[in-house]
Amino acid sequence: MATREARASAPATVIVVSRDGSGDVRILPHRSRGVVLESIALLRPHHWVKNIFVLVPLLLTPSALSWPAIGAALMGVAAFCLVASAVYVMNDYMDREADRLHPEKRFRPLASGTVPVPVALGLLALLVGGGFTIAVSLSTHFAILLGTYFGLNVGYSMGLKALPIVDVLIITLGFVLRVEAGASLIGVATTQWITIMTGLLALLLALGKRRDDIINSRDEGHRSALVGYNRPFIDNAMTAVLGALLVTYIIYTTDPQVADRMDTTYLFYTTPFVAAGIMRYLQLLFVEQRSSDPTDVVLGDRVLQGTILGWALCFGILLYA
């Protein structure tokens, strides 16, 4: 196919426009990666960390811990990773035209053209098929919850993401479904406190993503839901959610029913790690002015990682030592 190449304003970019009338546009990094690596990037594997929420019910239920339960939970995580990646592929396919107008998202594999659309759609089919094959092999209930998660995200990609507030609530529900799906695999019921904390933490992540969009987007044309948000609203909402999260966690760790279930009355000793993590996250947002996606913030900040590791070690010692 004959092409015309022209340098973009950024020296590390090459724009390739077809001459065959198809309208295909490719915005390539100057050092383009191969299709295989670009396809892996399309799956967003660094976001698979979100699917550890499937493991939460098992980790918080010492009596249910067994090798079969661990195996089922890990298979559940794998199913969610595949379907979540399918959602990313679908969303990028739907948004590829708008992404080409975004200063950063134009380098995504589908927007830039480094992964052909037929390849992306083939990956989408494989991911959905693989995820639901695993889900059905685990249990019908798990498959239904995974299907609900996928259906919500199809609706999100098809237009619900354009509705302010609704968009972040859908993301929040996706995390709650992960926890519920994990609980179904080991035959336990989640407590109201776990559901509330999961929802609050997920809402925080969703609001943080919108904050990143507001700061880094040129205008509301790329994501119409941003019309219903501004930075003061997001900052105040995130602060309120973080405060509610800390209060809910304190109630959870001092609840007598939780103490009986966990066989320990000392879970409140983990509270300082949660408080430190919340204050560090607020410091990153408001003092150091980091506006990245919350997942990237966590993966890129050693102090925040240290508080999470400290919490996990303290929690593990209290439960299993």
Structure characteristics:
single chain; 321 residues; mainly alpha; Tetracycline Repressor, domain 2; 3 domains
Record the SSE blueprint.
Elements: E1 3-7, E2 13-18, E3 25-29, H1 35-42, H2 56-59, H3 67-99, H4 109-112, H5 117-138, H6 140-158, H7 166-186, H8 192-216, H9 231-254, H10 256-262, H11 271-286, H12 294-300, H13 302-320
Antiparallel strand pairs: 1-2, 2-3
Helix pairs in contact: 3-5, 3-6, 3-7, 5-6, 6-7, 7-8, 8-9, 9-11, 11-13
A few lines on this structure:
The chain is built from 13 helices and three strands; from the N terminus they run βββααααααααααααα. The protein has 321 residues and is mainly alpha-helical. The protein folds into three domains: 32 residues, no CATH class; 157 residues, Tetracycline Repressor, domain 2; 130 residues.
Description of the molecule:
It is a single chain. The protein is mainly alpha-helical and 321 residues long. It folds into 3 domains: 1-32, no CATH class; 34-190, Tetracycline Repressor, domain 2 (Orthogonal Bundle), CATH 1.10.357.140; 192-321. Helices cover 65% and strands 5% of the residues. It contains 13 helices and 3 strands, in the order E-E-E-H-H-H-H-H-H-H-H-H-H-H-H-H. Strands 1-2-3 form a 3-stranded antiparallel sheet, with no helix packed on it. Strand 2 (13-18) and strand 3 form a beta hairpin. The termini are far apart. Mean pLDDT is 85; it is low at 1-30.
